[in-house]
Amino acid sequence: MKLATKMIHAGAEPDPSTGAIMTPIFQTSTYVQEAPGVNKGFEYARSQNPTRKALEEALAIIENGKFGLAFGSGVAATDAVIKLLKPGDEVICGNDMYGGTYRLFTMVFEKFGIRFHYVNMHNLDVVKGMINSNTKLIWVETPTNPLMNICDIAAVATMAKKNNILVCVDNTFASPYLQNPLDLGADIVMHSATKYLGGHSDVIQGSLIMNDQALREQLYFIQKSCGAVPGPMDCFLVLRGIKTLAVRMKAHCENGQRVAEWLRSNPRVAKVYWPGFADHPGHEVAKKQMRGFGGMLSFELKNDSIDEAKRVLSSTRIFSLAESLGGVESLINHPAIMTHASIPREERIKNGLNDSLIRLSVGIEDADDLIADLQSAIG
Ligand SMILES: Cc1ncc(COP(=O)(O)O)c(C=O)c1O
After folding, report:
1. Ligand 1: distance of its center to the CA of 75 in Å?
2. Is the pTM here over 0.90, yes or no?
């Protein structure tokens, strides 16, 4: 099946009891058994729920994987992956990634004896140089949040396989419409389904997708033992969101390009971070591993002061000032104060995330209106 068809039909079987075309919201905590241990495959809703099952099947289909698992949030999905590890294990990850992932790694897991090495994942020699016998996982976020850096997934996966290291790719920014990391050799794909998969800023959820049955069993064990499962209503919302992923992503890509090009032509803008530009350092890799460049971008103003950034951030009318991304409506965000505040300032600046950086999640409104809004805010 082609992508758009797959997104609409993934995991959607008519309900056997009524023929309902949409998977019902099975709002139940338990299931009646005929006799002890005799049941219809559902025992207790932390372990199994039919709405979640339909979603997990859909997730596997749209990421070209065999198994999907849904979690209560994106960070809960990340948390489950790190729980595959034990004290003494080491992880290589990017020095430019979502602030909440950095917080989870440094402030929760380091105290359990897991070591994280934050490196420039764009430079494969640096990644290679970090590998040692304790390395058990390479955590890839591409494109990165918020600097839109690109990492070559296939090259990292080849390097990891030689050393028996798992590769997990946070595919939140690209979505399965633009990039399928399992096809490129990754072992696990992670999503903050809160973003493009849900698509309407009305749900918090995370997902993991994988091909290996043993890995699925380990992660399912963590999912049910630690209990970070999403409720059935939220599973329904993400299932519904996936149906329009293809049309939404097409529009996000078109608007993203219009806004990126307009920003670049604006004399008050110093730099635009968007992998669709031919001179972006990750452009060739992005072209190879993605089907488009998406609707996320960041920019810096020529007047590189935090006050000027704050003025712009507070002046837009269609772009709402908010954390999160990937919804149909456009959002404007200040990573230094908002989404990436948990990264120490020194560390942020060293890795290129300046105080004045502004991040946009370009929605699917009319691009002319979005540009007019930015024009009136930036000048
Ligand atoms: C790239 C990326 N990964 C993970 C997350 C965490 O997801 P959630 O907020 O659903 O827990 C986010 C949230 O912004 C994100 O942008």
Report:
1. 6
2. yes
